[in-house]
Amino acid sequence: MAYYFSASRVTGGNAVFPDQIIIDVDNETLTYRKKKLIGYDDVKLRFGAIGCVSRSAGLVFCDVIIETNGGRTIRAKGFSRSDAEEIIDLLS
């Protein structure tokens, strides 16, 4: 089963192309997708490669911060608080 989360278009940097997080529980993978004018960038991680998942809460929206075991940090911006909590719960 796959869960799809899309950031709000209201937040800075997401007006045209919001960040997306796709969590596939069956294959145990997380995909972070950042769309561009032409194409998109994908980062695909196995659950075993994820070292830490946290959130940075603002007044209305949250950023989801994913740190890998290899030292890479992914910051997905502009998710609702409930989506951020669900993402953390699914990955924990």
Account of the 3D structure:
With 92 residues, this protein is mainly beta. The chain has one helix at residues 81-91, and strands at 2-6, 20-24, 29-35, 40-46, 50-57, 61-68, 73-80. The strands form two sheets. Strands 1-2-3-4 form a four-stranded antiparallel sheet, covered by helices on one side. The longest helix has 11 residues, at 81-91. The radius of gyration is 12 Å and the shape is globular.
Total number of beta strands = 7
Multimer state: single chain
Strand adjacency order, main sheet: 1-2-3-4
* Major sheet characteristics: 4 strands, antiparallel
Residue stretches low in confidence (pLDDT < 50, at least 5 long) are: none
Distance between the termini: 16 Å
Percent helix, as a range, is: 10-25%
Order of helices and strands: EEEEEEEH
- Overall geometric form: globular
How large a portion of the residues is in β-strands, by DSSP E?
over 45%
- The gyration radius over C-alpha positions equals 12 Å
Question: Can you give the mean pLDDT?
Answer: 91
Note the total helix count: 1
Structural category is mainly beta
